[in-house]
Predict the structure.
Amino acid sequence: MDIDYVVPVGGSFRITATFDGVPLTTGIVNTSGTLTVPKNVVGVTEISVLVEALVFTGTKTIDVTTSCVDAEEITIVEVCVTSDSDAGKFIHNEYRWTDGVFVSPIHSEQVTFASGTTTPLVSRYNAITGLQGGGVIPADSATVSIISNKFGIDNYDVDPTSALFSYLRTNTLYNNTPSEIKTLLAAASVNNITPTGSTPTFQGDFTMPAAGQYLYLIWDYRERVNKQLCYSNPGAGGSAQDACCNCISCSETCTYYDVDNPTASPITYLYADCASGATVTAIIAAGVNTPICSRIEPFPLDKASGLVVTWLQCGCP
């Protein structure tokens, strides 16, 4: 919000604008100009302006003009990815945002899970464009809630150990094509949120970032099936016979793995914390390998990433 002021010749003045208890001032001025006040709290609707004449002679007139709030226009893109095995099922994807005492209306849409062999399989891609701070378009620093809600004819049960919510604010437009959605999911993986709650409602919250023309809200309901495969290292005296026929069953809760990234780029992968069993998202740098204990075999978000996971032993050292 801009406050334009025109000051007369032959005097010094100071203009102070206070919004949400925070004062902003021009300092001592003797020339005309503009004081810009960020309108960054939705629930506060008033601003006070104090004009002080510090040095002047005779009668002086100062013109002060306040403009309308200049809200930024952004586009929210809702993306829902699912598994073909759940094709035909229903769930409601929702989101809302809060800023202080202000609570937005909830945006709710029923999603029908798609069928097909496309990877990733997108069941919903929807764009909403509007001005920040009004309706369903969150303001900067607001708390945004991504929600899954089962009601009516919905018949999909969210598995919080498998499902992920995520978000990304960026100036990049990712179109609804397999390659661009794949890139989007990788870019947003640093913001993965494990849903909390219980049937019928699961939710994940984040703070609205301050920059970017597009805000992507992602509901990832894909199944994550992990299987322990027998492994044998011929270089260490192992053989195909060991892997095929001499497979040793592991009865321990956790297993010790070596996670190796032989590529030139970081890789995002998931594993299950030994103590809590919660899904953990981690990033391994290029050219790095690290041992890790996990309840499941670690796996990359991108199956084609090049991540190499090696079984080391049952139980953790």
The first helix runs from residue 178 to 188. The chain has a mean pLDDT of 87. The chain has three domains: 2-66, 73-220, 234-314. The radius of gyration is 27 Å.
